[in-house]
Every structure is written in C-alpha cells, then in structure tokens.
Amino acid sequence: MTGSSRYGCGSGRVRPVLSAILLGLLALLAVLAGCGGPRVHAPRSEFIPFSPEQKASLEAKAGNEYRIQEGDILRIYFAFERELSQEGVVVLSDGAVSLMGIDRVKLAGHTISEADSLLTLAYSKDYREPTLSVMIQETQGRRVFVTGQVRNPGYYPVPVNGMDVMGAITIAGGLAEDASAENTLVVRVTPEGYQFQEVNLDDFGTAKYVPFAAMPLRAYDVVYVPRSGAGDFQYLTKSVLVGLSYITRMAYDIYNVASGVRGRY
Q1: Which end of the chain is more exposed for a tag (fewer CB within 10 A), N or C?
Q2: Given the DSSP bridges, would you call strands 184-189 and 105-106 parallel, antiparallel or unpaired?
Q3: What is the widest separation between alpha-carbon atoms in the chain?
Q4: What are the average pLDDT values for consecutive 10-residue runs of the chain, which has 265 residues?
C-alpha cells in the first residue's frame, strides 16, 4: 500500500504531474513531426553582375544619347521660373507632351538635348531666355514582362496606381497547371546587373506576402514563373539569364534613368 501511495496512478497528487509530462511529450512529438515534415520555404535573392560581354555592349552604347520614347515620364525643371517646373510629364501616344503655358510639343524620337532646345524655343515666345532642363524619370511606359508558366506570357503596362507580382500574373491570365508558385522570380535590371528576388505566391493573402505586395513593379521588371520542381536557385537564376539576353537595351535605358541623364542646364 505504501508503494502504491507513492507511485500509483491512483494518487491525486501524482496524476496532474503525469498529465503535465504527457502533454509535454505530445508537444515535443508535434515539434519533431514538424521538423520531419515539409521544409518551410524562405524566399531567396541574388545579384548577378553583367558579364564582360554585356558590359562591353553597354559601353559601346555609352556614346549614344538616349532618345525619348512614347510612354516615357519626364521631369521639366526651370532654374528661374520655378512655377513652370513639372514632374510626371507623360510622353503621349502621338509622341507629344502637354505642358503649362505652351502648345503641345512632340519630343518622342529626340535626344534630351534636342528636347531642351525644342521646349526652350516654345517658352521663348512668352518668357525671356528661359533656362530649363529635361530629365527622364521613367522609361518605356511602365511596362513589365510576365513569362514562364503563365497562361498568356507577354509585355504588359503597369497601371497608374501600380501593380505587384500577383497583379502582373493575373493580367497574364494566371498560373499554368505546372507552375511552381513558390519559386516565382522577379528580375530587376539595374545599371550594374540583374537583381533576382524569389516570391512565394503560395503565401498570397498571408502576412508573409505583405513585403512583396508592398514592392511595386518597375518598368522593365521581369516576372518569371518556372515549372514545378524548379531545383537549385542559382541554376534557376542563371538559366533565366539565357532568356533575358535581349534586354541589354533595357539596361542601357535604365542606366540613363539611374544616372540622372539630363539636358543642357
């Protein structure tokens, strides 16, 4: 009876202790089971600089002045008539811009210096020796590429109110059946190379997706959705580069924006 009172399950004092131990074991087993379950996927990122050949191509174009395109967004800065300065000036589909105080002026196809001269001439009708400068804020009408395992791959404009990765995929018809949503890549071309950011679309609608929802796409961004079982991340990023060799011209345009290319002033 003495042994039973010390160790038996019938003891009122011992039963809560055993229950606590049992709950602790169950919790431990749950943790161990989670460790043996599916691996939590953490989105990765990588920067790949331009190859020597790509750098040489950019340097070869360095002497070519950028020419304004339809859809470009300009900043017009006046040194003295500050009230005439404007940002977010869109080059319209006919190549012209609409500015305060003058008639529409066609700028598409002209270099930045030529655009300066055209606007200076237009403003000279009402202002004495206006001193202004044209700068590129964004190029190519805010378009992005959506490619890979989506239903309608293509080149899509970014709405005025912006667009995130899921929005771009939605415009492209959504994911194909064999898409690897957790390995979706956003490729951003910079003046020095390619920045890859992996986005796990399986997290869409959860707190984990919030940082990516707050990351608006920029002009020339590439959204790439691989097939299921994408494999090694470094291999994936480098294989994507093979298909992106044609956007060296984009890198040149982006270089002009990043370096603040401007006119005479």
Answers
A1: N
A2: unpaired
A3: 114
A4: 41 46 41 45 82 76 74 90 92 92 92 93 92 84 83 85 88 92 86 86 83 79 81 73 59 56 54
Task: Show which of 122, 138, 154 is a domain's final residue.
Answer: 138
Choosing from 93, 119, 138, the residue where a domain stops is: 138
Alpha helix locations (H) across the chain? 2-7, 14-36, 52-61, 112-123, 165-171, 210-213, 233-243, 248-258
SS3 146: strand
Question: How many domains, the chain?
Answer: 2
CB-count burial class (<10 Å; 0-12, 13-18, 19+) for 37 = exposed
Residue 184, CA distances (Å) to 77, 88, 199 in order: 40, 31, 5
- The C-alpha atoms of residue 251 and residue 265 are separated, in whole angstroms, by 25
Do residues 254 and 139 make contact, with C-beta atoms less than 8 angstroms apart? yes
